[in-house]
Amino acid sequence: MKKMLFSLVLTGSFLTAIAQTPTKKTDTPAVAPAEKVESLASNIKFNPDEKVITQHLTTIKGQKVPYQATTGTMPVWDEDGKTIAGIFYTYYERSDVNDRASRPLVISFNGGPGSASVWMQIAYTGPTLLNIDDEGYPVQPYGVKQNPYSILDVADIVFVNPVNTAYSRMTNKETPKSTFFGVNADVKYLAEWIKTFVTRNNRWASPKYLIGESYGTTRVSGLALELQENQWMYLNGVVLVSPTTLGIERGVASKAALRLPYFAATAWFHKKLAADLQSKDLTAMLPEVEQFTINELIPAMSKGGFIDPAERKAIASKMARYSGVDEKVILQNNLDVPLDYFWKELLRDQGYTVGRLDSRYKGIDRKDAGDGPDFNSELTSWLHSFTPAINIYLRNNLGYKTDLKYNMFGPVHPWDNSGDKTGENLRQAMAQNPYLHVLVQSGYYDGACDYFNAKYNLWQMDPSGRLKDRMSFEGYRSGHMMYLRKEDLIKGNDDLRKFIQKSLPKPGVPAKY
């Protein structure tokens, strides 16, 4: 029977199903099994220090890639060395590599705060993809398949789930939740955890990269400096996927005005623009809107109620042209159209709303009237396909079995957002480390962390202009999780490969200015 299964593997048609079957299980509990800590949320036993190791084979860009997957938990300790939490992770290592010292290591986080690492793990950079169509919509049967575009061919990857996400849990009821749930607390304990992971897995010599999505960009921007200053760990790159504002303040006028290029992209997608704009390609049309936003809209909105009425009407007319929203509506909102209202208004005449995180998605509300959508059409779609897939994959393919609930979004609130200087933290880390490069990846149809605000981050983060040669931006024709669209999945991973190659110094080249 084993021989027959192996022959099926070689045909390729059963490669994922067979090659991802667990072949070895290794448990390394920090305490004896009888002393396993109970989850704070239930009576289900939770071991904060254990792992399962499995062997796999996949094909990436036409090349056979054998790899080892380590799935499990690793502890977080307090200052006295007492275990206060267990962090759930999955670590993928290419297994035919002899020189691990020169092999890049990518440390991956998602956002929320409170989101598991599921999104990028089984839809972007990892060796496995969930079952969706080429535009990212759910299909049945649920499950996973090979990711032939994964970056595992050029880098090892560890997907990390902060406390209360996925299977990560607190273990000590006396530990204040503020130890974990805040901008700076999150960065502090995760930096300690990364240090432990790198030490246990003998990866101190490896070039290291952080990648974060959404709130994960706040996290990795803060980690870049925290790792340097308190763990003495220096990075080669930080990748920001659909970045937040990174604590970089916006004025009232700029905050409102910077939305317009996103409005324009969304209106273009839904064919709501004037014929001359609609006839242009998206990336040919957007620069005109961007220039208007910076050179005309921000100055006009800065005048507030004292703007000349004729100028106000002229600005509103141009905004209507670029947004697909009626000029009367724009004037009624004093040029400041709220995001919720835009998502409700753009396709109101067709009986649809558009998605917040990806405005390609449509929703249907109870009534067409109102100031915002009833639900996030894109998030509902994503949870539809991701939740079954990750539960199937971890248990059946990676051999990790637990009765704990996999938290797609876990309880992490109240979250302390005070003291968010993560954009400045990243700038400072770059200034201190000549090796450190930054890549931003944004979807044009993302209304939560829009692409133009991501560009604005880079402009404001480096006022001297001396770091811009180590900063790059890539845009994609999709939304918050731009990789759900197959074309952008391919391009996004290729962009990551190029970024890694660009940021690896040649042997012997010193880190100096």
From TrEMBL:
SUPFAM superfamilies: alpha/beta-Hydrolases (SSF53474). Keywords: Carboxypeptidase, Glycoprotein, Hydrolase, Protease, Signal. The lineage of its organism: Bacteria, Pseudomonadati, Bacteroidota, Flavobacteriia, Flavobacteriales. One of its GO terms (molecular function) is carboxypeptidase activity. Gene3D superfamilies: alpha/beta hydrolase. This is Carboxypeptidase. Pfam families: Peptidase_S10. Residues 1-19 form the signal peptide. The keyword Protease applies. It comes from Flavobacterium ammoniigenes. InterPro entries: AB_hydrolase_fold, Peptidase_S10. The keyword Disulfide bond does not apply.
